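Morning!

This is the sequence you dropped in the shared folder:
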Amino acid sequence: MANLNKPTKKQRQNTVVQKPNEKIVQEKVSKPETIYSLLIKVVSFSIIILSIIYLSDSKGFFNPDYSNDHTRRKWNAYYEFTKKQPVDVVLVGNSHLYTGLNPENLSTALGASCFILASPGTTMTDTYFALKEAIAVCKPKIAIVETFTMNDYDSHKLKNGVLSDQFKSFAARKNIGQKLQSTPILFTSDNYLPAWSNTLRNHSFIFSDTTQINKNIKLINSVEQPNQGLYLGRYIRFTSGLEDSTLLKYDKPGFVGYDYNLNLPSVEAKMYLRKTIELCKKNNIKLVLMTLPMYYKHVHNYNLYKEEIISSMNNTEQHWLDLQQPYDTTAFGPECFENTVSGNQHMTYYGSRVTAYKLAKYIRQELPNVLPDRTKEIAWKQLFYACDGYFENNPPENDGVSQVLLQNTVIQNGYLVNELCVVPAQGAKKIIIKIDKKNQSLLYGKSIILKVQVEFKTQKMIIDIPLICNLSYDPLKYFVFASEPMNPALNILGISQISVE
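The structure's back. Tokens below.
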């Protein structure tokens, strides 16, 4: 009797064929599932890591010490300033610029708004991208580009110190699109992420600077205080000039100083200077190159450097205020420069004012009618009133503090006093005399002695007050004589005598 449960030969053949097919199908199904799950894990892990980095960056756990980060302060202030007032003159460069030029005096001398966007140790390449972002925020009438950024460098071969400065400058800028474009130009691929993330750049704080991490944690819930008063990118670093003992070193054998021949502009620097020229031309902005001076005995082989820059521009004419050569020994004395003979010599606060008036005069002569006159605008006055250089260039208002004691009065030797006034000066007060420059010989270095009737603590007396005229306050129309700051409680009743010495 046949076994009804026993499979036939055909059934057995079908069973044998189907088993390996089922295995193949299972392998085909399981393999993509495995790759898919792996990708999911990788993506999920990456999202978690990136989220942690983003959270850390947003909280600022690994932020560097921002208390003296004036590059970041400049960009923050620039964005805030342009919400209230257009910037007419933007200045870009490195530390030579922001220590070597006073933007308040430049603004009040020109009757315009001038802002410095400069970062320490920056290159011409970085300067180009800074100017590009500045223009995107607010298109100025004039761009000033400092030439000390033109040196021998390659952005992809920067050493730690200069690379750190480039990170700082990059981090301070805010335009995401432009930062993305500039990232592969300014940094090598292994520095892309550190350039964008303080956490990745400063993760070593865990081992080297836990104090800064703890400080950052305390700052998380605090509110950043807005900058008080007018800030236009100035940084007062040096307040005293070259001392006699330092000046003697210039004449000693073996003195080095700064040799331009060792720092001639690189191919990259020349290329980005040309790009800067094209950028300004495209945006109808007047470009002025500016060379801030170092003490004339401090530099060597400057001619070679200047010739390299000129040739890189294909010998096209460009506005260039070169204060290194020809060098003005009367204007730029030892008091204008940092007390050092090391290679990188900056200017003093006094020197920064001298430079501001040199640039103001250059703009008025070479680029007339380019800038608007904002001195009649209420918004401009509200921002600039009583700032450094305001009263030297503009008359005081009826503010309850200032006094105008004389106007349009001829004194000794036929000098026309346009204005003699008492004005506030950083918690004190000072006397300013403006003498018309028209048809007058140079009065720099001279002094005026005022016999002044004063009252101090109910006691009345007559005192002599000397006023000095120098190039650190040099408006286009007036010689300015200014006194030293005086006690604000000193009440000036009148002038009994004016003598020029």
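Headline: The longest strand covers residues 459-469.

More detail when I'm at my desk.
O.
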